[in-house]
Design a protein that fits this description.
The structure is a single chain. The chain is about 70% helix and about 0% strand. By secondary structure, the protein is mainly α. It has one domain: Ferritin (Up-down Bundle). The longest helix is centred in the C-terminal third of the chain and has 29 residues. The protein is globular and about 45 Å long.
């Protein structure tokens, strides 16, 4: 039997098919493993941590009821509390508009959760026992840390948000938390003088 002239005709033998399959699977770049069912999304995790932190921050001004403070400290802390409250309400509105945004998925490992609770109790005790300049310094230091963390939580949520409109809200919260952080840092610097 004679093959027709012109382009060559290849016959696929089982060995040739096996070789092609091996080459195509070996030459592909590996795909990342699929996220396990029920895995926490970075956006929801960051937003949940932020929501929880803002709940604490909106109440920070209540500490000033039992402590005497100077006017500058009072004004900065009140501004932090008001910004945190408004930002928390913005997150609640986003969650109402987007059913996939879950503000209750902090998903902290047990050790991290216990450590946070321990640190929170220790800070509260320190603040309650401190007065004057020591109280102001410890409060401002705690606020600087919390607001820096809030800034980055909102930033991570924005970076992991698929909707440009919602990403913008997270970015605005990040900018507001950063502005309050700067207020606290400025007051810390002024207190050193």
């Amino acid at each position: 039997m004679e093959l027709p002239k012109g382009p060559r005709v290849f016959r696929f033998t089982p060995l040739l098919v096996l070789g092609l399959v091996a080459c195509t699977t070996a030459c592909r770049s590996p795909e990342p493993p699929a996220a396990p069912a029920g895995a926490v999304q970075p956006r929801n995790n960051a937003a949940s941590l932020l929501y929880d932190l803002l709940g604490d921050e909106k109440n920070v001004s209540k500490l000033l009821i039992i402590k005497r403070d100077r006017r500058e400290l009072h004004d900065v802390i009140k501004k932090v509390a008001a910004t945190a409250d408004a930002s928390r309400k913005s997150l609640e509105k986003l969650a109402q508009e987007d059913a996939t945004l879950n503000l209750k998925t902090m998903a902290l490992p047990p050790g991290e959760k216990a450590t946070r609770e321990s640190e929170s109790k220790a800070r509260a005790k320190e603040l309650l026992h401190a007065s004057g300049a020591e109280f102001e310094f410890k409060l401002l230091l705690a606020q600087a840390e919390a607001l820096a963390y809030a800034t980055h939580l909102a930033k991570v949520a924005a970076e992991n948000e698929s909707s440009p409109e919602r990403a913008k809200v997270f970015a605005e919260i990040s900018a507001q938390m950063n502005a309050r952080h700067q207020d606290v840092v400025n007051l810390l610097h002024a207190s050193k003088r």
